[in-house]
Design brief:
Elements lengths: L1 H11 L6 E3 L4 E7 H8 L16 H7 L11 E10 L6 E3 L8 H11 L5 H24 L11 E3 H13 L3 E3 L4 H5 L20 E4 L3 E7 L5 H7 L8 H20 L12 E3 L5 E3 L23 H9 L2 H9 L5 H11 L33 H6 L1 H17 L19 H7 L6 H7 L13 H7 L7 H4 L23 H12 L2 H14 L6 H6 L5 H4 L34 E2 L1 H16 L20 H23 L10 H8 L26 E2 L8 H16 L15 E3 H20 L13 H15 L5 H10 L6 H8 L22 H4 L13 H17 L4 H18 L2 H16 L4 H34 L13 H11 L1 H13 L8 H4 L21 H5 L38 H6 L22 H4 L73 H23 L1 H18 L30 H20 L2 H15 L9 H20 L2 H23 L9 H23 L1 H7 L1 H8 L1 H12 L22 H10 L2 H15 L1 H7 L3 H18 L38 E3 L2 E3 L45 H11 L14 E5 L6 E6 L5 E6 L4 E5 L9 E2 L3 E3 L8 E5 L4 E5 L3 E4 ...
Parallel strand pairs: 4-13, 6-7, 16-20
Antiparallel strand pairs: 1-2, 2-3, 3-8, 4-5, 7-8, 9-10, 11-12, 14-15, 16-44, 17-18, 18-19, 19-21, 22-23, 23-24, 24-25, 26-27, 27-28, 28-29, 30-31, 31-32, 32-33, 34-35, 35-36, 36-37, 38-39, 39-40, 40-41, 42-43, 43-44
Helix pairs in contact: 9-27, 9-34, 11-12, 27-28, 27-29, 32-33, 33-35, 34-35, 35-36, 35-37, 36-37, 37-43, 42-43, 42-44, 43-44, 43-56, 45-46, 45-47, 46-47, 46-48, 47-48, 47-50, 48-52, 48-53, 53-54, 53-55
Length: 1874
Amino acid sequence: MECRVAAVEKDLGIDRKQLVVGESCQIVAFVPVKWLTSLKERKTLLSSCPRPEGLSEAEITTFLQPSVDKLPAGWTRISIQTLRKSRLAYHISHTPSSPTRCAEEAARVGAELDLDSLCGFMQHVAEQNYRNLWRKAHRQYGRPHTDSTERPRTSALQSVKQSLSRLLGCSFLHIGSDSSLNKEAAPSPPDSQGPHPNLLPADALLESAHFLYVIQPFSRYSLRDVVSYSPAKLASSHAKVLFILFQVLQAMRACHREGLTCGSLALNHLLVDERLCTQLQLSLCDYERPECAELSGGEAGQEGSEQAASTEHQLPALCTDWVHGRISNFSYLMGLNRLAGRRDGDPNYHPVLPWVVDFTVPYGKFRDLRKSKFRLNKGDKQLDFTYEMTQEAFVTGGQAGEALHVPHHISDILSDITYYVYKARRTPRSVLCSHVRSQWEPNEYPASMERMQSWTPDECIPEFYTDPTIFQSIHPDMPDLDIPNWCASYQDFIDIHRELLESKEVSLNLHHWIDLTFGYKLTGKEAVKAKNVCLHLVDSHSHLTSYGVVQLFDRPHPQRLAGGSYAPPEAPVITQNLKGVAERHSEMRAAGLINGIVPETAGSEGAWPLGEDSRDRLKEEDLEEGTEALDSLAASDKPSEQLSPAAVSNLSTADPRVSANKVNRNRGMADPDLRDARVSLPEGFNPLQALEDLEKHHNFLVRGLYSELPERSFTNLTPHLSFSQFVQRDMQAFGVLTAEIFFAQRLKALAQDASFLDRFLTVRKLCVHHLKEIAAPLQHAALTLLQLGRSCEELLEAGVHGDQINLFEYLPVFEGLPPSSPAQLLSPSCPIIPFPLYFNSLHQFVCSYYSHWAENVEQGRDFVFSLWQQLDKLLEKIQPEGLEILLPFILGLMSNDLTAVYAAWYFFEPISRALGPRNAYRYLLKPLVGVYEKPGYLCGRFYLYTDCFIVQLIVRLGLQPFLNSLLPHILQVLTGQEGAEDSRVLGVVADDEEAVSDSPDSYSSSELKGTAEHRSSSFVDFSSGISFSDQAELTENEDFQNGIFLSEREQESVSLGKLSDKSSNSDTSAEDRGTDSDSKERLSLRSVDSNQDLKLPENILQPGDPEDDEEGEAVPEPADFCSSPASDPRESEALPKGESLEEEDEEEEELSEGKEQKILLDTACKTVKWLTAKLGPTLSSRHVVRNLLRLLVSCYFGSEKHQFVSSGDENGTRVGNIYERRPVLGDVIARPILECLMYVAQLYGEPVLTYQCLTYIAYVVGPSNSWRLNSRKEAGLLSGVVLMQKIIVYLSDTTLMDVLPKINQDVLLPVLQVLTSPHTSFPSRAQARTVLCVKTLSLIALVCLRIGQEMVSQHMSETLRRFFQGFSVLSELKEQMGVSEDSRLGLAGLSDGDELSWDPAAVEELEAVFSLEMAYSAYIPFNCLIGDSIIKKVLWNHDQVWKLVTLYQETVSAQSPESPRLTSPESQQGGGFALSVRDGLLADDRVTGTFGSVTVGNRIEIPQDTTSMGHHPAQVNQCPNTLTLAGSQEDGSLKQELPRSARMLCGNWLAYWQYEIGLSQHDTRFYFHQIRLQHFTGHSGTVKCLSTLSGEDFFLSASRDKTVRLWPLYNYGDGTREMEPRLTYSEHRKSVFYVQQAEALQQVVSCDGSVHLWDQFTGKTIRIFDAFDSRNPVTAVTSMPAPQCSVITGTADSMLHFIDPRKPGLQHEFRLNMSVTAGLIRCLAVSPSGRTVAVGFSSGYIYLLDTRTGLIMRVWQAHDSDILQLKTAEGNVVVSSSTDHCLTIWKESEQKAVHHYRSPSDPVHIFDLHSNEIVAGTVANRIGIYSLVDTSVPASMNKLSSENFRGTLTSLGILPAKRLLLLGSDNGVIRLLA
């Protein structure tokens, strides 16, 4: 390869440092993007490629590694394949000499025959078989010399060039100075649509004088990486492997049509991405032929020297050489690293060697190689703790989509951080700061080798054994790495360290370290025992990676043979007696020669001729004694133990039978001369050790490495090659490739550069012994392509011909088919590989995805629409395995800014219908939340807020998941800023206050902290793959949550924007933290976009934060939120502009961003109102109103929201504000939220305002635990006052007087306490305090105007006194400080030693707010309202306030002489500043409120004719620039009546609603209080079945009166109203005993013996399935959960019938019981996953059936009598009830029942499941609630009262979200109870 690298450097001008040799003879180059662009545009090649400036050689080497993904800006990597033109100087014959014409006929077949049809395929097979048989006969029997025609031959060079140009769609660009090249006409690229999508495209094709260059994009991942490092990505289903092979065959067919072959395909030639889209990279080096005639094995493109080198690198030979001491430890370990895929210079996957000594003593203390370095460093206790904790978490499990904690001991063998620390002296500072630690601290790096070895938990790197420069520092402030003082120099250390590695102590124990690092101790029980379980091998990760831990061996590694252990260093001492005996025996053996043959011992065939009996007896005796001798030798475990003399004599002496005279048959008696003869063996000598080591080594090679390969003699090839041979080689390579995917774990020991022959032989041997490990659909393909039915010798011998390069030749006809070709295998009629029928549509979808994405990515809608047109056809045929492949593409579209909205609009409904609610929630919820959370302008976003799309979300996800996880994100658009900006504060009121009362009027802190049960951590990134088979602690820099600091306490309980107080307790995997899109997953109601830099002032802190001590600093205003105050924020600043889409078609009117924003808000408001009416009062209050109240607070969060803006809507109705309209930005943003809140109040009545909103206001404005005010509390105060103004306007007079004390005590006084306090400063400083003061003053005035003059002094005196007290605070402080009245209190006059009891910043704010202008503007209206005498009594500081008013008047008079002068308070009533009295509002009786003058006791009687009095507000004419009381009738309405609604809460509905909203949001238990809410009359017979629809707004009932009725579930009346059915289905002929909604079809299934399928909206019949056998009627029915559409029926003959309602006839039919003992089928229940169905019989037996296979999984007798009902729940739980009074909980896999609930009086005949509870009913009208999980909780029983329920209970249904109970009776009446 060096010559090729040199050629690239010379011809392309790329510096050698920017090149590295990659896999498959390719060269990876690091080049500028501009240089590559010039090549793509066919410009002249630059003389030299630019070199990276400022990058060291080490950095460039790192960037060339495939594991590194982040490259410098403007640089990229490319792959270069080189072809030496001199090795293409041969010709290819186009008339095949073999039985196939794959390439030539592939094009014709594709053009003439349609192999997708059965007719075309059979015609192709017939034609090919005929031609192949004819050619075989002609070749075998014909005479070649009579054939005068010559084979048409073309040059391989020209053929390759032309084929590449056509295939890749570009022509060759000539480079260099060779003029001959320029004369040749370069082939023009074809007029096609570009290269095949499954072929890796070419950036450029270059030709020089000696080489061809194919420049292609560099791909990080190949299929080898998938099977080596991420095998779990393909483990979920065989469909993924089949789809990869399907794409490979598509690419191969395209190549063959253009006359190009693919080479000896290997796993690294298949480039894949996270979505398993596969691109084939051609192996062009296989086209090269050696310039000499010698070729090895007929394999194209492999040089003999390279083959010899690769043979030496094979693991069996490498292991054998090391065991026998022929190579060093270092060489062997580096070979293992190379086989494991480790790459030099790769920080993530660098080679590893063991630390062998610790450098604490001279020449080191040897380390224990039986333990990993991680274990030695951390200790067993720490590893045990890690394993036990993760194991406990793993057993506990997690929620759906949550990453489980996998038990493990170690995380990695060598991390990238450790690698950089090792090489810190040679690595640039910038690299160290980006990988090790961001701040440069050179002293923090280990300073010596001793410290380095003791610090690191990872293994060593080879540089410490080879490179003395690694110790020398290139940093001036970092000293060189110290070496031990017993080394004279760095080179001396390297030499000694290397000698220690090669020492005897290390060699004898190195196999233990190999077992830990590359061997069998990485997995299984041995790994647990060795505390060596590696996370990478057990976490089943599905994301792609190019590095990891590779296990090469699955058996113990043999020990290195040390000479002294089995051979004595010196000859043993032999005694004289033994020598003499040996001489005599030698003489006897010499004399005993028979015909020149020496008799053998141990009963050999050449022994002395004996009788048959004697010979057999001797054989038995010899075998017995030999076994005893071997056992005696082997019994010794200690090497130092000496052998017994008898044992030595038995082995050392000659056979005693060999005698000239007789044979000694007494084996127990030895020769007397031998008794004293001994051989003195050295201590520790074991004569059998060599044999044992040989046997272990042989077993290791044969069983562990599969190293026995048949030998083959090769013959030289002649250069006569045919194209068909290349094609056959492609198909053989495809067969090998298919097997390698499944045998990847067994082929780890096979070198990546192994020859095609070695791969074929190894794979074929594995197929013979382990064929079942290959997926069943591909076993036939392996048998066919690898010809497993023929012996290997036959194949290879028959394949050796001088004109062939393929390994063997296929038979002309095999199993009736011609030799395989890509076009043939892709045919649906071909039986070799049964590809699913939907693969063609799926492949077309994927190709369209990538082609449109590259061309029309800006046209988001057109792009998505074109894919949507293909989706319906695809989903009709697709299976769940195919959905796993399709779904990542859909998720990618829903996550991209340009396509997210349209992808959600077009794809959600069909994809969620195919997935079902469970999988739709798991996979689609995260991208949906991402679409709603995306900041900035997105074209067409309003589509996702329409009611039709919201209905789809409810139906396909389920009501409860929608409410908990998606609704909060939808509502936040009402703030006008969807996305991260506002959602970051969507929980700002969730303070950390714990003190709340237990009364229903109070909110619990947990409720205010969250409503969404869904935790953001359950959002798992599925972009790396989907599997239907069945996140993270915040880092230090993530505690600052989008500009708002949280204390530790609040971080656990309050996460801004989260609606769950548990949302911070979960974990995310490390790979889910890296990207911007993934960071959005951590928050439930906010989106953290890393591109936004939202920094709020440091003094916006939580109580108790240390940063809050710094007071008085200037508050910068975030530029992100600032907007022009003169414009409507809805039009100007509502959203930051993002990238706009391209213009749509001309005939469509384009919407501007401002107009679309208005449409979005209007659509969202309408949808929220519609949703409020649909959900009902309880769900609306719990999920809509609560979230709206939180959003209202967020509207005032931040100083930018407190800026006054001009009103852009002069004609709008602004009720509740009597001052001149000066709204702040927060008021404009909050307008849609207030509108929706008031709509809810109009729909459900005043209780929404008084019971829920008022309580919430009291909470947010209530006193906190600290005097310090944070931004959340500030926003809460403002929002509470604004909402209070709205509420007062809509309250009736009676209600207002009832809640007035609460308003004063819980709202006004706490607000005034903060407003007038000198101890509390506002985060937004004086501006926020001013706004709060104005709004509070307006609120007080509004209340006073509503209640009238008489009531003000009685109820509002304390409030007015507290407000005007603010004008005296400053004077009191001045008196305390001894400062004159005219001077200002500020920070300037304070010394450092002053200790203040007040906040200087707060004092400055008070000076700015309670000014002369504020005194005048506040005093004059109230003086006119209640009179001078009363106000003097109320205000204790009246004189001071009057003084301030007078000063202001004088100041204004001085500036404007025309202004009237204020004389006295009394004269104001008639002066220019007096309150204007209209229509007698201020008459003699001084009735100023909305009440009449009639009082009854302490209550006020409201006359009917005084309602119009409240529409005329008072006016005060003020001087310029002052706050004035003004307003029109619309702007300043004092009172508005709530319209009467038919759904207004009253009676029992009100009581039930009050109880429900008082419960915690996280309390999911079912409470039954027998509150009667509704009853439904219409059935004339017994109600047999009740079923609720998915939205819980309607339910179905089946009755004995042969009808099915559809009922509405909306609240009407006070609980006594009778409801009528919305629809009646009367097509049944018998009593209807079953009704259910089919989720997938959204249709109704009902049964009376015949199964009816009908439309739930129109009542029209769709299909009727009559009884299959009139003698065996249907006795039980159930429907499969979505996405399955089947309906299961059980008949009297114990048959289960599966019906697909979309098709006529039966789908499946299974017989359960052949005997009559089981009885009749009473009930059926399908598991939530749809995989099993439980069948209950009248005999008490339960059958558990697999719905996919029909196999009976389990049968058991659950009860002693008739089973009445069955239900299934999550976790494989089955619940059954019987007439034996038992309610039993079962686990599918357990034999014994989990728990028995026994009803003492009557059996449970009906029940339903609610979360983890069972709600059951009995014939005695008792309702019981049982726990499904915690069986220790006692059951609660309630007897239905006759007032609430009449008749006998016959059916029961639960509304899970609303927690209501439907009860049907025998009299046909259905009642709704709570």
